[in-house]
Amino acid sequence: MDRILELKDVxxxxxxxxxxxxxxxxxxxxxxxxxxxxxxxxxxxxxxxxAMALLRLHDESSTILSGNADxxxxxxxSIPQEEMNELRWKEISVVFQKAMNSxxxxxxxxxxxxxxxxxxxxKATSDQxxxxxxxxxxxxxxxxxxxxxxxxxxxxxxxxxxAIAISLLHSPKLIIFDEATTALDVVTQxxxxxxxxxxxxxxxxxxxxxxxxxxxVAASCNKVAVMYAGEIxxxxxxxxxxxxxxxxxTKGLISSLPSLFGTNDSLHAIxxxxxxxxxxxxxxxxxxxxxxxxxxxxxxxPKHVSFDNGRFVACWLYEGGGRDE
Length: 325
Description:
By secondary structure, the protein is α/β, with parallel strands linked by helices. The chain has ten helices and 13 strands. The strands form two sheets. The protein has a nine-stranded mixed beta sheet, sandwiched between helices. The longest helix is centred in the middle third of the chain and has 18 residues, at about 185-205.
């Protein structure tokens, strides 16, 4: 399959006069055309920061980016801002958690769509834009009349569907969902996820899904990356990782999920908290919370150990158990 995105040692550091925060550290992963990657991990793990770095939406005056993010032959980290502005929304788009809040409450949906569309296609006519948006509204199961409505005339789920449709205006190659369905009820969330999966099949779209919800990844993604303290600790096919988690952190996340069979077993929480990311971490970032940690885990960073089917894990427990990258 064609490679669409390849990250190599991507780092994001927030910096001011007082301190530095190492929010994302040496993230290395790859995506093929048509892949759907779920990035999971607790709040503060760096998931959204990584997405903002790929989109170059950070504050340049206080953020340091390094590494390489090859998107179809162009490095998203180093290309000029003008070139990034041309890529953003046309080749790469994003749907945020409360994207519906970005809609102006005093303008009709159609008027807002025209303004957005003209940024990249200034010569497009109103009829052309409406035809394209109505096509996308149908794709997300919304009627044509939505184009003429105001945001306050729509439910939260309908507005989030509108936001998804807007993100698809220019048929981007890569779309990032940053907690895009978290604020919705379970039924609406399930409907939107089903629609997203169907869209991928018809539009050959590649997706990154950032979420806290493991079930969202299980239901709608083919790959998963487990992120902790700014680092990818494990990555592989969803079926492999969820059925046989390797890293102790992945095991902890999965064991914290409630049973589907109504058993009386108590939930298993992961003890402790994320480390202070303003301090450089010498060993494994998860070591202070890990029941399997040895002295080596605190003193040296584990390498990525590769297994079949594109899977890798960064953990000293598997030293020599796979193929060193």
